[in-house]
Write a structure and sequence with these properties.
65% helix, 3-stranded antiparallel beta sheet, mainly alpha, 142 residues
Length: 142
């Protein structure tokens, strides 16, 4: 049997996917992918990371204005969650009124890089996905 590059690639991708989905040997916690996706998979976290990654730092209200539809409370909850995960740093200035700025940490920047790759993939393949959805919907109606 002759093995082609495509065959090896499929095997390599399958092995890589299985490795990512494997629970750590210490048995503590969930699969790391599920754990992180549960934390950052909501639209507010991703949008917050993308907006914070587009500039050096943002004040709370600047960030809130950039994220269409987010409430003050939801942004507060989101930023606290991202800060607790070490993805966002919060800096409070001793001024009256207090000034607070948020920025991505190095860990947050590394996540942003992965999100940019995903965003590029989504932009590149959006027409194919739309076409597949339309074909599926047409097939369902018959």
């Amino acid at each position: 049997m002759e093995i082609t590059i495509a065959d090896n690639q499929a095997f390599t991708l399958g092995a890589a996917a299985q490795k990512i989905l494997t629970v750590p040997e210490n048995g503590i916690g969930l699969c790391p992918v599920r754990d992180i996706l549960d934390r950052i998979g909501d639209k507010w976290s991703m949008l917050s990371i993308l907006h914070l990654g587009s500039v050096e730092s943002l004040r709370f209200n600047e960030l809130r204005k950039r994220i269409d539809g987010i409430s003050q409370r939801m942004l507060t909850v989101t930023l606290r969650s991202l800060e607790s995960d070490g993805l966002v740093a919060r800096k409070v200035y001793a001024e009256v009124p207090p000034r607070v700025e948020y920025r991505l940490t190095n860990l947050g920047i590394s996540l942003l890089e992965a999100m940019i790759e995903f965003g590029n993939w989504a932009n590149e393949h959006a027409p194919q996905i739309a076409q597949a959805r339309a074909a599926f919907a047409a097939k369902e109606q018959t």
